[in-house]
Fold this protein.
Amino acid sequence: MNVLQLFDVTKRIGAREIVRQLNMSVREGEVYGFLGPNGAGKTTTIRMIVGLIRPTRGAIHICGHDVVEEPVAAKRHIGAIVENPEMYGYLTGRQNLLHYARLAGVDHVDERIRQVARRVGLEDRLDDKVKRYSLGMRQRLGVAQALIGDPKLLVLDEPTNGLDPAGMREFRELIRALAAEGLAVFVSSHLLSEVEQMCDRVAVLQQGSVIAEASVAELRTRAGSLRLRVSRQEEAAAWLRARGWQVESADGRLTVVDLDDPAAAKLIRELVEAEFEVYEAARTGGLEASFLALTGAESGGNAP
Ligand SMILES: Nc1ncnc2c1ncn2[C@@H]1O[C@H](COP(=O)(O)OP(=O)(O)O)[C@@H](O)[C@H]1O
Ligand SMILES: [Mg+2]
Protein backbone atom coordinates (compact mmCIF):
# COMPACT_ATOMS: atom_id res chain seq x y z
CA MET A 1 0.00 0.00 0.00
CA ASN A 2 1.21 3.52 -0.78
CA VAL A 3 1.41 5.52 2.41
CA LEU A 4 2.69 8.67 0.72
CA GLN A 5 1.97 9.79 -2.82
CA LEU A 6 2.97 12.97 -4.62
CA PHE A 7 1.15 13.78 -7.84
CA ASP A 8 2.81 16.35 -10.09
CA VAL A 9 3.74 18.54 -7.16
CA THR A 10 5.12 21.95 -8.09
CA LYS A 11 5.98 24.78 -5.70
CA ARG A 12 6.51 28.29 -6.94
CA ILE A 13 7.73 31.04 -4.64
CA GLY A 14 7.56 34.43 -6.26
CA ALA A 15 8.58 33.99 -9.87
CA ARG A 16 10.70 30.93 -9.15
CA GLU A 17 9.75 27.26 -9.36
CA ILE A 18 11.50 25.73 -6.38
CA VAL A 19 10.34 22.17 -7.18
CA ARG A 20 8.73 20.91 -10.33
CA GLN A 21 6.29 18.10 -11.12
CA LEU A 22 7.37 15.68 -8.44
CA ASN A 23 5.81 12.22 -8.62
CA MET A 24 6.85 9.84 -5.87
CA SER A 25 5.27 7.12 -3.80
CA VAL A 26 6.39 5.43 -0.62
CA ARG A 27 5.08 2.06 0.49
CA GLU A 28 4.58 0.55 3.90
CA GLY A 29 7.81 -0.83 5.33
CA GLU A 30 9.98 1.07 2.88
CA VAL A 31 12.74 3.60 3.53
CA TYR A 32 12.66 6.07 0.65
CA GLY A 33 15.64 8.35 0.19
CA PHE A 34 15.29 11.85 -1.22
CA LEU A 35 18.81 12.63 -2.34
CA GLY A 36 20.01 15.96 -3.59
CA PRO A 37 22.65 18.65 -3.05
CA ASN A 38 22.03 21.70 -0.89
CA GLY A 39 19.47 23.99 -2.43
CA ALA A 40 17.86 21.25 -4.58
CA GLY A 41 14.47 21.69 -2.91
CA LYS A 42 14.36 18.87 -0.33
CA THR A 43 13.19 20.93 2.63
CA THR A 44 10.61 22.75 0.52
CA THR A 45 9.16 19.37 -0.54
CA ILE A 46 9.13 18.09 3.01
CA ARG A 47 7.41 21.23 4.25
CA MET A 48 4.64 20.53 1.73
CA ILE A 49 4.36 16.88 2.77
CA VAL A 50 3.89 17.77 6.43
CA GLY A 51 1.46 20.55 5.55
CA LEU A 52 3.50 23.60 6.57
CA ILE A 53 3.20 25.08 3.06
CA ARG A 54 0.91 24.29 0.14
CA PRO A 55 1.83 23.03 -3.29
CA THR A 56 1.27 25.58 -6.06
CA ARG A 57 0.05 22.72 -8.27
CA GLY A 58 -0.45 18.99 -7.79
CA ALA A 59 -1.49 16.99 -4.74
CA ILE A 60 -0.01 15.06 -1.84
CA HIS A 61 -1.85 12.09 -0.32
CA ILE A 62 -1.07 10.40 2.97
CA CYS A 63 -2.88 7.09 3.44
CA GLY A 64 -5.21 8.29 0.71
CA HIS A 65 -6.01 11.64 2.37
CA ASP A 66 -5.15 14.87 0.59
CA VAL A 67 -2.91 17.02 2.79
CA VAL A 68 -4.62 20.26 1.71
CA GLU A 69 -8.23 19.03 1.43
CA GLU A 70 -8.26 16.78 4.51
CA PRO A 71 -5.43 18.06 6.70
CA VAL A 72 -6.59 16.48 9.94
CA ALA A 73 -7.08 13.00 8.46
CA ALA A 74 -3.79 13.23 6.55
CA LYS A 75 -1.65 14.59 9.36
CA ARG A 76 -2.92 11.99 11.82
CA HIS A 77 -0.68 9.50 10.02
CA ILE A 78 2.52 11.59 9.93
CA GLY A 79 5.36 11.84 12.38
CA ALA A 80 8.13 14.21 11.38
CA ILE A 81 11.43 15.76 12.25
CA VAL A 82 11.82 18.82 10.09
CA GLU A 83 15.08 20.70 10.51
CA ASN A 84 16.11 20.52 14.14
CA PRO A 85 13.49 19.02 16.40
CA GLU A 86 12.26 21.68 18.78
CA MET A 87 13.08 20.27 22.19
CA TYR A 88 13.16 22.08 25.49
CA GLY A 89 16.60 21.66 27.01
CA TYR A 90 15.57 22.63 30.52
CA LEU A 91 12.89 19.92 30.54
CA THR A 92 13.49 16.18 30.78
CA GLY A 93 12.99 13.82 27.87
CA ARG A 94 9.79 12.61 29.51
CA GLN A 95 8.43 16.14 29.94
CA ASN A 96 9.16 16.91 26.30
CA LEU A 97 7.36 13.77 25.16
CA LEU A 98 4.44 14.57 27.45
CA HIS A 99 4.13 17.94 25.76
CA TYR A 100 4.01 16.36 22.28
CA ALA A 101 1.72 13.55 23.43
CA ARG A 102 -0.81 16.14 24.61
CA LEU A 103 -0.53 18.07 21.33
CA ALA A 104 -1.16 14.82 19.44
CA GLY A 105 -4.10 13.91 21.70
CA VAL A 106 -2.58 10.56 22.68
CA ASP A 107 -4.49 8.23 25.03
CA HIS A 108 -2.73 6.31 27.83
CA VAL A 109 0.07 8.85 27.75
CA ASP A 110 2.41 7.29 30.31
CA GLU A 111 2.31 3.89 28.66
CA ARG A 112 2.82 5.41 25.20
CA ILE A 113 5.83 7.44 26.37
CA ARG A 114 7.34 4.29 27.87
CA GLN A 115 6.83 2.45 24.58
CA VAL A 116 8.38 5.07 22.30
CA ALA A 117 11.28 5.72 24.70
CA ARG A 118 12.03 2.00 24.77
CA ARG A 119 11.75 1.87 20.98
CA VAL A 120 14.48 4.50 20.52
CA GLY A 121 16.63 3.26 23.41
CA LEU A 122 16.14 6.22 25.75
CA GLU A 123 14.21 4.54 28.56
CA ASP A 124 17.08 4.87 31.03
CA ARG A 125 17.64 8.55 30.32
CA LEU A 126 14.05 9.74 30.18
CA ASP A 127 14.27 11.72 33.42
CA ASP A 128 17.49 13.54 32.52
CA LYS A 129 17.26 17.06 31.22
CA VAL A 130 17.55 17.23 27.45
CA LYS A 131 20.43 19.72 27.70
CA ARG A 132 22.44 16.80 29.13
CA TYR A 133 21.72 14.66 26.05
CA SER A 134 24.22 14.09 23.27
CA LEU A 135 23.18 15.13 19.76
CA GLY A 136 22.50 11.48 18.92
CA MET A 137 20.20 11.16 21.94
CA ARG A 138 18.39 14.35 20.95
CA GLN A 139 17.82 12.93 17.47
CA ARG A 140 16.44 9.75 18.99
CA LEU A 141 14.19 11.81 21.26
CA GLY A 142 13.06 13.55 18.06
CA VAL A 143 12.14 10.16 16.61
CA ALA A 144 10.31 9.24 19.83
CA GLN A 145 8.35 12.49 19.55
CA ALA A 146 7.58 11.74 15.89
CA LEU A 147 6.37 8.24 16.83
CA ILE A 148 4.20 9.29 19.74
CA GLY A 149 0.96 9.47 17.75
CA ASP A 150 1.61 6.04 16.15
CA PRO A 151 2.09 7.33 12.58
CA LYS A 152 2.19 5.29 9.38
CA LEU A 153 4.70 7.68 7.79
CA LEU A 154 7.88 9.07 9.28
CA VAL A 155 9.32 12.13 7.52
CA LEU A 156 12.91 13.11 8.29
CA ASP A 157 14.80 16.07 6.86
CA GLU A 158 18.55 15.36 6.87
CA PRO A 159 18.32 13.62 10.24
CA THR A 160 21.97 12.66 10.63
CA ASN A 161 23.48 16.09 9.94
CA GLY A 162 26.04 16.75 12.63
CA LEU A 163 26.14 13.19 13.98
CA ASP A 164 29.46 11.36 14.26
CA PRO A 165 29.88 8.06 12.34
CA ALA A 166 28.79 5.96 15.32
CA GLY A 167 25.74 8.15 15.87
CA MET A 168 24.89 7.89 12.16
CA ARG A 169 25.11 4.13 12.23
CA GLU A 170 22.93 3.90 15.34
CA PHE A 171 20.38 6.19 13.74
CA ARG A 172 20.36 4.18 10.51
CA GLU A 173 19.81 0.96 12.40
CA LEU A 174 16.90 2.50 14.27
CA ILE A 175 15.28 3.66 11.03
CA ARG A 176 15.76 0.26 9.37
CA ALA A 177 14.21 -1.46 12.39
CA LEU A 178 11.19 0.86 12.35
CA ALA A 179 10.67 0.15 8.64
CA ALA A 180 10.93 -3.57 9.30
CA GLU A 181 7.94 -3.13 11.62
CA GLY A 182 5.93 -1.65 8.74
CA LEU A 183 6.53 2.08 9.01
CA ALA A 184 7.01 4.01 5.75
CA VAL A 185 9.98 6.39 6.00
CA PHE A 186 10.71 9.36 3.75
CA VAL A 187 14.18 10.71 4.47
CA SER A 188 16.15 13.45 2.76
CA SER A 189 19.92 13.58 2.54
CA HIS A 190 22.70 15.16 0.55
CA LEU A 191 24.95 12.15 1.26
CA LEU A 192 25.02 9.33 -1.24
CA SER A 193 26.67 6.92 1.18
CA GLU A 194 23.99 7.52 3.77
CA VAL A 195 21.15 6.88 1.31
CA GLU A 196 22.94 3.79 0.10
CA GLN A 197 23.12 2.38 3.59
CA MET A 198 19.72 3.40 4.88
CA CYS A 199 17.27 3.30 1.98
CA ASP A 200 15.45 0.80 -0.21
CA ARG A 201 14.69 3.23 -3.00
CA VAL A 202 15.99 6.62 -3.91
CA ALA A 203 14.83 9.62 -5.88
CA VAL A 204 17.56 11.96 -7.05
CA LEU A 205 16.56 15.61 -6.91
CA GLN A 206 18.46 18.23 -8.83
CA GLN A 207 17.47 21.88 -9.11
CA GLY A 208 13.90 21.07 -8.17
CA SER A 209 13.34 18.11 -10.49
CA VAL A 210 13.54 14.40 -9.80
CA ILE A 211 16.00 13.23 -12.43
CA ALA A 212 15.97 9.57 -11.46
CA GLU A 213 14.22 7.08 -9.24
CA ALA A 214 15.50 3.57 -8.66
CA SER A 215 15.97 0.88 -6.07
CA VAL A 216 19.30 1.12 -4.29
CA ALA A 217 20.00 -2.53 -5.15
CA GLU A 218 19.50 -1.79 -8.83
CA LEU A 219 21.78 1.27 -8.79
CA ARG A 220 24.41 -0.69 -6.93
CA THR A 221 24.63 -3.46 -9.50
CA ARG A 222 24.60 -1.16 -12.51
CA ALA A 223 27.86 -1.06 -14.35
CA GLY A 224 30.69 1.00 -12.96
CA SER A 225 34.44 0.91 -13.44
CA LEU A 226 37.38 -0.81 -11.79
CA ARG A 227 40.77 0.79 -11.10
CA LEU A 228 43.71 -1.54 -10.71
CA ARG A 229 47.36 -1.29 -9.78
CA VAL A 230 49.05 -4.37 -11.18
CA SER A 231 52.45 -5.72 -12.09
CA ARG A 232 53.53 -5.46 -15.75
CA GLN A 233 50.86 -2.85 -16.36
CA GLU A 234 51.12 -2.52 -20.15
CA GLU A 235 51.25 -6.25 -20.62
CA ALA A 236 48.21 -6.65 -18.38
CA ALA A 237 46.35 -3.96 -20.35
CA ALA A 238 47.06 -5.75 -23.64
CA TRP A 239 46.08 -9.08 -22.11
CA LEU A 240 42.75 -7.64 -20.91
CA ARG A 241 42.02 -5.92 -24.23
CA ALA A 242 42.63 -9.18 -26.04
CA ARG A 243 39.93 -10.67 -23.85
CA GLY A 244 37.43 -8.00 -24.84
CA TRP A 245 37.69 -5.57 -21.89
CA GLN A 246 37.75 -1.84 -22.50
CA VAL A 247 40.87 -0.66 -20.66
CA GLU A 248 42.64 2.64 -20.16
CA SER A 249 46.20 2.65 -18.90
CA ALA A 250 47.57 5.82 -17.28
CA ASP A 251 49.28 7.16 -14.15
CA GLY A 252 50.27 3.77 -12.84
CA ARG A 253 46.71 2.45 -12.94
CA LEU A 254 44.48 0.50 -15.26
CA THR A 255 40.87 1.56 -15.49
CA VAL A 256 38.47 -1.05 -16.78
CA VAL A 257 35.13 0.49 -17.62
CA ASP A 258 31.57 -0.70 -17.80
CA LEU A 259 31.45 -3.77 -15.62
CA ASP A 260 29.19 -4.81 -12.77
CA ASP A 261 30.21 -6.44 -9.47
CA PRO A 262 30.29 -10.07 -10.68
CA ALA A 263 32.28 -9.08 -13.79
CA ALA A 264 34.79 -7.14 -11.65
CA ALA A 265 35.29 -10.13 -9.36
CA LYS A 266 35.79 -12.45 -12.33
CA LEU A 267 38.28 -10.11 -13.98
CA ILE A 268 40.41 -9.88 -10.83
CA ARG A 269 40.44 -13.66 -10.49
CA GLU A 270 41.50 -14.07 -14.14
CA LEU A 271 44.35 -11.57 -13.74
CA VAL A 272 45.65 -13.42 -10.71
CA GLU A 273 45.35 -16.77 -12.46
CA ALA A 274 47.35 -15.32 -15.37
CA GLU A 275 50.05 -14.47 -12.79
CA PHE A 276 49.72 -10.72 -12.80
CA GLU A 277 50.09 -9.32 -9.29
CA VAL A 278 47.08 -7.24 -8.20
CA TYR A 279 48.31 -4.70 -5.64
CA GLU A 280 45.19 -2.56 -5.49
CA ALA A 281 41.65 -2.79 -6.81
CA ALA A 282 39.06 -0.05 -6.30
CA ARG A 283 35.51 0.03 -7.57
CA THR A 284 34.23 3.44 -8.55
CA GLY A 285 31.05 1.91 -9.33
CA GLY A 286 27.75 0.77 -8.84
CA LEU A 287 25.89 3.39 -6.94
CA GLU A 288 28.43 6.16 -7.08
CA ALA A 289 29.07 5.78 -10.79
CA SER A 290 25.34 5.63 -11.51
CA PHE A 291 24.77 8.67 -9.38
CA LEU A 292 27.50 10.64 -11.10
CA ALA A 293 26.21 9.57 -14.50
CA LEU A 294 22.71 10.63 -13.52
CA THR A 295 23.65 13.99 -12.09
CA GLY A 296 26.40 14.65 -14.61
CA ALA A 297 28.48 15.92 -11.72
CA GLU A 298 32.22 15.72 -11.51
CA SER A 299 32.31 14.91 -7.83
CA GLY A 300 29.65 13.92 -5.34
CA GLY A 301 26.76 15.55 -7.16
CA ASN A 302 27.40 18.82 -5.37
CA ALA A 303 28.49 20.86 -8.35
CA PRO A 304 26.50 24.09 -8.74
N1 LIG B 1 10.56 30.92 1.31
C1 LIG B 1 11.44 30.95 0.30
N2 LIG B 1 11.55 32.05 -0.48
C2 LIG B 1 12.41 32.07 -1.52
N3 LIG B 1 13.23 31.08 -1.84
C3 LIG B 1 13.18 29.97 -1.10
C4 LIG B 1 12.29 29.82 0.02
N4 LIG B 1 12.45 28.62 0.55
C5 LIG B 1 13.43 28.00 -0.17
N5 LIG B 1 13.86 28.81 -1.16
C6 LIG B 1 14.89 28.50 -2.17
O1 LIG B 1 14.55 27.26 -2.76
C7 LIG B 1 15.71 26.48 -3.02
C8 LIG B 1 15.56 25.12 -2.38
O2 LIG B 1 15.63 25.27 -0.97
P1 LIG B 1 15.47 24.04 0.02
O3 LIG B 1 14.15 23.40 -0.22
O4 LIG B 1 15.71 24.54 1.39
O5 LIG B 1 16.63 23.07 -0.48
P2 LIG B 1 17.38 21.86 0.28
O6 LIG B 1 16.58 21.51 1.49
O7 LIG B 1 17.42 20.77 -0.75
O8 LIG B 1 18.74 22.35 0.60
C9 LIG B 1 16.88 27.30 -2.50
O9 LIG B 1 17.48 27.96 -3.58
C10 LIG B 1 16.25 28.27 -1.54
O10 LIG B 1 16.99 29.45 -1.47
MG1 LIG C 1 17.15 21.40 3.48
